[in-house]
Structures are given as structure tokens and as C-alpha cells.
């Protein structure tokens, strides 16, 4: 028995059976939806795929009618535009994720390249496996972050598909629903079915399951769709251990970085500083205005202890750039909207397009730094975040972005000196807060967390530049030098 045998038998449900089932189902769906809205602890993502003519569109309309459409967002994705292709592949899907308590229905999902490759006459198995692995990782992270994923494949027999397509095309009021490609499906039905079976088998997991929906009979299709969605709304799903989300460290051959091993005496005198600063700023200014730079998205990440000089270093970088070219993004505690989505969601929204620069003053590393130390994140959340961050940064690099990560480090004594200077300076007093003093009491915990960050996320593709910053002049010049050399190499 094959995956689609039951659906290709084109089962039917008598009208007198469907009506009482529908009435009961609609009530149950509304009740379950409102419970989900009130709890607002998870969201539901429904992926609609299937053979053309199987009823995806009708099912989406049905769900919006049977439930409260105010808490449902239906999203349709066409083939990636030229602009879409300038960003990492999953970016546009991240941007449309549902907030906690809500439901999203997705057409034209991240599955399109997988199914298209599998349906070729001579498919590339390595490409298929790569697509499947990326999808499994993406969906695993979504579920771990509170987004429930249900995937519906609408299927019917070859004869039923052709019949339905012919009927829709013959009626002027429904002909618009049929594309030229839909009319040819019956000719390559076997290949499309086999491609679907392969894609489904590679991406069917307990936490993001596929459900096959018989599509030939409208009543059965509607009832089955409603029952699957109701079951998902009632289910309390948790992801178990998964090979795609782990906490493996960077290979041991990569250099080990520890804050206590830095040379904090590194310094520049004023004359040397002025000459070096002018040199590297001029080179960066010329690079940022070159034709080649128009094709490069540049992402700069700044982390470090409080009062380590991140703001001053960032200002020396932005001084060389056109104001229309960069976006400096200070990261603070997440807003309610951001808390209603996976923690990487707000960073996906700020990825720069080619020719632009995104500068993060603190970043996605908050999950494994402040959220870890202050216990805002549960241990399983921050422990798996290292691998999630590495995967996120790999997607940025694979799409053509240059990612540079800087940690500006000061000693505990130097930080205390800067804190006291801020308290007495009318120009800097706004920079010091009670939270800074509170964080200082956890110096050792933050140092341990930082060293773990370097051990687990200092990858060859996205290495950390950990710079001693007791002397601000030395740190600022070092930042600019690293940026210029990396951009020159990238171009």
C-alpha cells in the first residue's frame, strides 16, 4: 500500500452524514480557537500543499468561514522575486509567522523548491536532501519556539483531477482558478505523485506532521480538514531530542578564545590613533561607495560588557557611511509583539539588502548571554540556541552577506572606573543605570556565558573578533581595520 492509495480511491461522504458532522465540528473549532487565543502561549501554522485541483483554496476559505477570521491570517507566496533572492531563502517566511494565539494558513510555502526538484525528470538527490534538511531544521525551531506546524497535502486520483480541472475551466465563473500548468497535471501525474511522496517522507516528523486529505469529494475534504485542524488545536505538542538542534561546540581545531587571556594593556598613543583612524576610515568610506559594494549586504554585530565602548566604536564606523546606507539597531528587552514570536524573528526583520549595512548594538546573542544569566530563558532554550544561531548566521553567509562579530572587552576595574566617570559627567550620566550596577554583580556569570559563546559560535565562516578595549583608541582602530580587511576580501 502506498502513501496515496486511500486518497486516490476518491472516497466520498454522503450529504446526510456531512451536515451533523459539520455543525458539531464548527462549534468545536471555534471553542478550541478561542481557548488558543485566550492562552496566547502557542500559535498554529497550517501549510497547504497538494495536487492542483485538490481543493487547497476552498479549504482555506472554509477554515476562515468556520472559525473567527480575525485571528487567522492567510498568506500566499509566489515564486521569489528578485528582491527576495537578495536575502536568505527563509527570510520572507520568518516575516509572516503568526503571533502567539493566532493561526496562519500558508500557500506556496518553503516546500516549493523541494517538490519542484523532486518532480524533475532527472532530479538531483543532493539538492533534494539539502532542501529537506533545511526544512526540518526550520520547522523544528518553530515548534520549539511555540509555533505548532501542521502540513496538509490534498490529493485525488488522476482521473478525478482531470475531471475537476475540465469542469472548472468550462465554467466562465470558475475558469480563473485554472492555470495553464494545471491543465497539464494529468499528463505527468505519476511523476508529481512520486515527487510528493518523496518530499513528504523526508519531512514528516512527529512535531510537524503531514496529513493526506482526500480531495475528490467536497464534503469529505471539508470534514477531514476541520478534524485535522481541531486535533492540532487540542494537542499539547513538545519536540523531543532532535539531530538538527543541538549544542555542539565549534570543532576543536578552531582557536579557543577566553576573555581572561586577552592583552588588556594594548594601547595607542594619540598621534598614532589619529593617523590610523584617518587611514582606516578613508578606506572604509571608499569601499562603501564602490560599485562592487552595491552587491554586498554587511552585518556588524557588537557585543561586550557594559561601558566597553560599543557606542563609540559604532560611531567611528557610521561616520564613514552615507546615512541612507546604514541602519544602527540598538537591541533592548523584547516588546510584547516580539515576545509573541520566536526570538530570532525580530532579527530576521532587520537583515540588510545588498549595498546596505545593519549594525547591531547587542544582538541575537542575548539569548545565550543576558537571558541565560538572568534566567529569562529556560535552560533548554539557551542551550539549543547556539546551534540555532550558527544556522542563522550560516544562512546569512550563504545568501551573500558578510557577517562580522565584535566583542569589546574591558577588565572589571576598568568598567568600575568608567561607571564612576559616567556618574560625575553631565554628558554621560544618562548612560549609567541601576541595571548596570546590578549586572556588574554577576560579572563571573557573564564571563562564563561569554566564553561559552566563543566556544560554541566562533565558526570559520562567522568568527568572533574579541578585542581588548581598556584603551578605547586601540579598540576603535582595531574594529575599523577588521571591517576594512574583511570587506576588501569579500569584494
Automatic annotation (TrEMBL):
Polyphosphate kinase-2-related domain residues are 22-234, 268-489
Kindly indicate whether the keyword Ubl conjugation belongs to this entry.
no
Q: Which domain of life is it from?
A: Bacteria
Q: What SUPFAM superfamilies would the database entry show?
A: P-loop containing nucleoside triphosphate hydrolases
Q: Which InterPro entries match?
A: P-loop_NTPase (IPR027417), PolyP_AMP_Tfrase (IPR022489), PPK2-related (IPR022488)
What are the record keywords, sorted?
Answer: Transferase
What Pfam families does UniProt report for this protein, alphabetically? PPK2
In this entry, which stretches build a coiled coil?
Answer: none
Q: Name one GO molecular function term.
A: polyphosphate:AMP phosphotransferase activity
Which GO BP annotation is one of this protein's?
polyphosphate metabolic process
NCBIfam families with a match to the protein in the record: poly_P_AMP_trns
Q: What is this protein called?
A: Polyphosphate:AMP phosphotransferase
Organism source for this protein? Answer: Pollutimonas subterranea
Amino acid at each position: 500500500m502506498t502513501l496515496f492509495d486511500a486518497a486516490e480511491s476518491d472516497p466520498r461522504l454522503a450529504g446526510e452524514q456531512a451536515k451533523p458532522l459539520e455543525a458539531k465540528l464548527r462549534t468545536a473549532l471555534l471553542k478550541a480557537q478561542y481557548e488558543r487565543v485566550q492562552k496566547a502561549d502557542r500559535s498554529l501554522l497550517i501549510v497547504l500543499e497538494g495536487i492542483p485541483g485538490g481543493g487547497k483554496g476552498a479549504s482555506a476559505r472554509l477554515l476562515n468561514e468556520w472559525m473567527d477570521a480575525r485571528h487567522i491570517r492567510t498568506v500566499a507566496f509566489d515564486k521569489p522575486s528578485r528582491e527576495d533572492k537578495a536575502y536568505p531563502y527563509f527570510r520572507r517566511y520568518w516575516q509572516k509567522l503568526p503571533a502567539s494565539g493566532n493561526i496562519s494558513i500558508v500557500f506556496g510555502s518553503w516546500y516549493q523548491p523541494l517538490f519542484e526538484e523532486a518532480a524533475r525528470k532527472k532530479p538531483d538527490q543532493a539538492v533534494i536532501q539539502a532542501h529537506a534538511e533545511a526544512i526540518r531544521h526550520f520547522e523544528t525551531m518553530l515548534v520549539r519556539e511555540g509555533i505548532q506546524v501542521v502540513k496538509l497535502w490534498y490529493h485525488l486520483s488522476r482521473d478525478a483531477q482531470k475531471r475537476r480541472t475540465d469542469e472548472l475551466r468550462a465554467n466562465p465563473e470558475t475558469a480563473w482558478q485554472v492555470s495553464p500548468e494545471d491543465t497539464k497535471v494529468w499528463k505527468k501525474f505519476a511523476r508529481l505523485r512520486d515527487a510528493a511522496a518523496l518530499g513528504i517522507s523526508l519531512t514528516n516528523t512527529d512535531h510537524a506532521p503531514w496529513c493526506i486529505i482526500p480531495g475528490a469529494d467536497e464534503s469529505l475534504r471539508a470534514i477531514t480538514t476541520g478534524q485535522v485542524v481541531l486535533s492540532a488545536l487540542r494537542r499539547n505538542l513538545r519536540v523531543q531530542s532532535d539531530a538538527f538542534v543541538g549544542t555542539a561546540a565549534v570543532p576543536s581545531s578552531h582557536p579557543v578564545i577566553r576573555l581572561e587571556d586577552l592583552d588588556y594593556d594594548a594601547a595607542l598613543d594619540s598621534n598614532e590613533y589619529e593617523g590610523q583612524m584617518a587611514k582606516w576610515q578613508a578606506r572604509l568610506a571608499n569601499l562603501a561607495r564602490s560599485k562592487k559594494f552595491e552587491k554586498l549586504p554587511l552585518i556588524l554585530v557588537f557585543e561586550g560588557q557594559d561601558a566597553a565602548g560599543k557606542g563609540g566604536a559604532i560611531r567611528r564606523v557610521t561616520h564613514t557611511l552615507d546615512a541612507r546606507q546604514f541602519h544602527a539597531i540598538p537591541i533592548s528587552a523584547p516588546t510584547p509583539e516580539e515576545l509573541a514570536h520566536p526570538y530570532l524573528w525580530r532579527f530576521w526583520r532587520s537583515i540588510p539588502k545588498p549595498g546596505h549595512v545593519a549594525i547591531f548594538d547587542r544582538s541575537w546573542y542575548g539569548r545565550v548571554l543576558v537571558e541565560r544569566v538572568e534566567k529569562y530563558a529556560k535552560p533548554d532554550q539557551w542551550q539549543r540556541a547556539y546551534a540555532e544561531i550558527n544556522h542563522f548566521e550560516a544562512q546569512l553567509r550563504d545568501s551573500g552577506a558578510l557577517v562580522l562579530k565584535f566583542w569589546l572587552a574591558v577588565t572589571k576595574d576598568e568598567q568600575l572606573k568608567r561607571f564612576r566617570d559616567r556618574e560625575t559627567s553631565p554628558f554621560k550620566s544618562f548612560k549609567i543605570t541601576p541595571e548596570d550596577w546590578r549586572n556588574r554583580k554577576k560579572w563571573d556569570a557573564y564571563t562564563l556565558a561569554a566564553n561559552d559563546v566563543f566556544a560554541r559560535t566562533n565558526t570559520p565562516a562567522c568568527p568572533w573578533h574579541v578585542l581588548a578595549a581598556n584603551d578605547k583608541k586601540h579598540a576603535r582602530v582595531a574594529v575599523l581595520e577588521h571591517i576594512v580587511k574583511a570587506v576588501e576580501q569579500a569584494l
